[in-house]
Write a structure and sequence with these properties.
The protein is an all-alpha fold. It has helices at about 5-45, 55-65, 75-85, 110-115, 120-145, 160, 165-180, 185-190, 195-210, 215-225, 230-245, 245-270, 275-290, 295-300, 300-320, 330-345, 360-365, 370-375, 375-405, 410-415, 425-440. α2 (about 55-65) crosses α3 and α5 packs parallel to α9.
Length: about 450
């Protein structure tokens, strides 16, 4: 057997394992979690409608652009609830959801939805679901390229990896399947969450910067600002990075500011004084959903905020240290990955679907695992902990999916929450391990085929 044969064979096994993991998550959602939610809603009188995150944005866009109505108004919110939940919420009913599903986005998101407003929402849903799948796959492949990532599944076969296009292709297929087939991504796809769209736009923007398409990167980041909380820390890093070579790196910033100005001005034209309304809607969203950060959810508000401040200071310090890195180096893409991991950790939301932003950090950590293992006992323990936290949802969803075929449905549904047990700790572990990895100095390694 040649050295190339086991290399390709391991790639095939990686695809098989990825397919099993993805199938386990999908079957768990279809056969355990969703049936439980339907049964629980029927038993408690909790409303269930289309449950599409796109729907409130689509209705808000329709009412503003076609009928001139304020999408932040209570009347439009009630109309959204009728479609999203099946009826307007009644606060006198204790089992009604707390999330009012108001239009808590910047007004300029309506311009992206304008071409769909003459279509039925059912048709828009189908096309949007397909878009989310495609952009999530493209996001994974973009990060593979931006990170200069070579699968460490085959770290002992570097000489043959250069000539094995088939193995490289299979490795990328495995990455795409895992990127789509994890609990966060699957939940986002089921809910038609716009976080997946924003994550894809971020990945494309970083790839554009790595190829010196700065204007395209700026435009893409401006579009991604439809969910400001997901891009704000990345913009802070890019602003600090731009200061490292302002003359050569200012084009992305100029294009970003130009597009943002156009979006904000156009929104102001259609809905004067929309910014105070948006901030009021965002604050109301935090109040009625009780949204807090991962750290505050984990250890409480007082200590959680203290750790958030410390984490933010450490992040800014590292951003400043690496500001001179060229966009074609691993340092730049890995810093972007670290910033996104800290975004999941620090934003006032603990939704599982936002963890799709951890995918680039997990790619970094997977490739760096041997260095982390050899760093010392503490690093080794943290690595094993993160592996366990990340693997838990896949292991448990596969187990529950299998059990759903052999045990009574009601019995299996009792354990629907088990795969989510580690969700609150995954961002904590990933962010901590990324800091350990950054301390090794490996962020400075140039990507394959790039200049440093």
């Amino acid at each position: 057997m040649t050295r190339r044969a086991p290399y390709i064979q391991s790639s095939i096994w990686a695809v098989v394992v990825a397919l099993v993991c993805a199938a386990g998550v999908w079957l768990f959602l279809q056969r355990v979690m969703i049936p439980y939610q339907i049964a629980d809603a029927a038993a408690t009188g909790r409303p269930r409608g289309n449950l599409s995150d796109l729907y409130p944005r689509w209705v808000g866009a329709r009412e503003l652009l076609l009928h001139g109505r304020d999408p932040y108004s209570a009347e439009v919110t009630r109309e959204i609830q009728v479609g999203y939940y099946g009826r307007a919420l009644d606060h006198s009913r204790k089992n009604d959801p707390r999330d009012e599903q108001g239009f808590a986005y910047p007004v300029y998101v309506v311009f992206a939805l304008a071409p769909t407003l003459q279509l039925t929402f059912a048709l828009v849903q189908r096309w949007f679901s397909l878009l989310l799948i495609l952009i999530s796959a493209a996001s994974a492949l973009s990060w593979v390229q931006s990170l200069g990532w070579r699968s460490s599944l085959h770290s002992s076969w570097h000489s043959s990896s250069r000539s094995s296009l088939r193995s490289s292709f299979l490795t990328r297929i495995a990455v795409v399947i895992l990127a789509l087939g994890n609990l966060a991504a699957m939940q986002g796809l089921k809910l038609e969450q716009m976080s997946l769209l924003v994550a894809g736009l971020i990945a494309i923007a970083i790839l554009c910067l790595a190829h010196d398409h700065q204007v395209a990167a700026g435009v893409t980041l401006a579009l991604a600002s439809m969910k400001p909380q997901l891009v704000v820390l990345l913009l802070v890093w890019l602003a600090i990075w731009t200061l490292g070579d302002l003359r050569r790196r200012c084009r992305w910033l100029v294009s970003f500011l130009v597009v943002m100005t156009i979006q904000i001005a156009a929104a102001e034209w259609y809905l004067p004084h929309w910014i105070p309304r948006f901030w009021q809607a965002a604050r109301a969203y935090r109040d009625y959903t009780g949204a807090i950060s991962v750290l505050e959810e984990w250890i409480g508000p007082l200590l959680g905020r203290a750790l958030e401040t410390l984490a933010f200071v450490l992040l800014i310090r590292l951003c400043w240290k690496e500001r001179s890195a060229a966009a074609t180096t691993r340092t730049f893409a890995r810093m972007a990955s670290l910033v996104l991991a800290f975004t999941v950790l620090l934003i006032p939301a603990d939704s599982v679907y936002n963890q799709v932003l951890l995918i680039p950090a997990l790619l970094v950590l997977f490739e760096a695992r041997w260095g982390l293992w050899q760093k010392g006992a503490a690093s080794r323990l943290l690595l094993l902990t993160v592996v366990g936290l990340v693997a838990w949802p896949w292991i448990t969803t596969i187990a529950l999916a299998v059990l759903s075929f052999v045990l009574p449905q009601e019995r299996v549904e009792e354990y629907w929450a088990v795969p989510f047990w580690t969700s609150i700790l995954i961002p904590v572990g990933v962010a901590a391990l990324m800091l350990v990895n950054a301390s090794q100095g490996s962020f400075g390694e140039p990507a394959e085929g790039s200049t440093s």
